[in-house]
Amino acid sequence: MVTRLYWHPIYLQHLTSPGHPERPDRLRALHSVLEGDEFYGLDRVEAPMGDEEAILYVHPESLAERIRAAVPEEIDEEERERGLAQHLTRIDGDTVVSPKSWEAALTAIGAATAAVDTVFTGKADNVFVASRPPGHHAERDRAMGFCLFNNAAIAARHAQAAHGAERVAIVDWDVHHGNGTQDIFQADPTVLYCSTHQMPLFPGTGAKDETGVGNIVNAPLSPNTGSREFREAFTSRVLPALDEFRPDLIIVSAGFDAHHRDPLAEINLDESDFDWATGKLMDRAERFSGNRLVSILEGGYDLQGLSQSAAAHITRLMKG
Length: 320
Ligand SMILES: [Zn+2]
Hints:
Radius of gyration: 18 Å
CATH architecture: 3-Layer(aba) Sandwich
Bound molecules: zinc ion
Oligomer: single chain
CATH superfamily: Histone deacetylase domain
Helix content: 25-40%
Shape: globular
Distance between the termini: 6 Å
Number of domains: 1
Structural class: alpha/beta
Largest sheet: 8 strands, parallel
Number of helices: 10
Order of helices and strands: EHEHHHEEHEHEHEEHEHEH
Strand order of the largest sheet: 2-1-5-10-9-6-7-8
CATH topology: Arginase, Chain A
CATH class: Alpha Beta
């Protein structure tokens, strides 16, 4: 398998408040693991800046304008002398923007759409996008939950608009339910959204009976469950839905906060579970979508749990 990694240094410049779990160190930890010899063959490409028009695949212009207007100016000399380190603007209780956030968010969109182009033009079989800010909580009209724009949803629409994909499946194993992705596609039978997540937990959506137009498959997991329950949910709910849908592209909303070390949730997965789930999705990608699989980083807040799990995921993507 040829596996491409999209990354960009601008992702480290989207800053959040001190002590915020969604922080630049997440990507630093991941990049340090990816320096290992076993990742020598990874095709690393600097992500292009996204087209602002791509935001409009899934969000109204008013949301784009609201986010852009909220982005603060760089700090000036006088403010630095007063001891201020950075400007942050709050979008909601836990979502903030810093001076470089607009550029980072657009480059996250650029990576997501470039990843789709990459697998449809055969430049790689699959792609991992190591970007921030994450996206799956961003609803059509609302940025929330550390997310500004919904990168995975934009990637799905781009596959349809630019490459003629008829059916796109988004599989979301982040420990939080992707309320944003569900909100965007719940009336659209051309996109299948499957999610495993802890329930109850933020954001509160994701019950089994939220089924959209038959295109939403939620597999909630009880707190303090682990590998057995996750694999059972994947095997009995997610994989059969994919088999029936026969996607032209599989997009993974790859959060690694269901890892047992993660501080934000109580699901006890480890690296081997992400390796296993990746293998199952690659099997479906081989069968239905010419191996095309685009995986986009979402959450994961323990630096070791995140970096080791993402490494297991990427290793599987490379091996096939
Ligand atoms: Zn999460």
